[in-house]
Write a structure and sequence with these properties.
- Helix 3 links the parallel strand 5 and strand 6.
- The mean pLDDT is 93.
- The protein is globular, with a radius of gyration of 15 Å.
- It has one domain: 60s Ribosomal Protein L30, Chain: A (2-Layer Sandwich).
- The protein is 30% helix and 23% strand.
- The protein is of the alpha+beta class and 150 residues long.
């Protein structure tokens, strides 16, 4: 389930510039399945447990979409950084785009699962829309410092 981020158009998921690895923005879309992550049903059971799925329809319907998309995006960031030879603690900067800044506390809760120590420097921005549809709630781009092996 932990595949690298796959772009929806013709651009690289990541590029190296010396010791810097720059990731393209990652959204909660599974291009192989042709679907947008919309809630807990789109995640593995262990992720749902980590995120606190309650089984209560009203709570899970309200919190599930942003929690699920946050987990999906950060898990793809993790897999992509690892494919470049790094680890999540090599991520030095995140830029996080939200359709609604009220979602940030939910995302922040998930981010702590991926960055349990010192978090990377971050920028948070609210935007009016994201591709490919209004169902996308969060997009994250990352920069990692992964020294080239000599």
């Amino acid at each position: 389930m932990s595949e690298i981020a796959k772009p929806l158009a013709r651009y690289a998921p990541w590029r190296r510039a010396g010791d810097l690895v720059l990731l393209s923005g990652v959204i909660a879309v599974d291009p192989a399945a042709g679907r947008i992550v919309r809630g807990y049903a789109d995640l593995p059971a262990e992720a749902c447990a980590l995120l606190g799925e309650t089984g209560e329809f009203s709570t899970d319907l309200r919190e599930g979409p942003i929690l699920a998309q946050s987990w999906w995006v950060l898990d793809r960031v993790r897999a992509t950084v690892e494919s470049a030879g790094g680890r999540m603690d090599d991520v030095v900067k995140l830029v996080q785009y939200f359709r609604n800044l009220d979602h940030f506390p939910y995302y922040s809760r998930v981010r702590k699962l991926f960055f349990p120590g010192e978090p990377p420097a971050s920028t948070v921005v609210e935007v009016s829309a994201m591709l490919p549809s209004d169902d996308i709630l969060v997009e994250v781009e990352a920069t990692a410092w992964i020294p080239l092996k000599q």
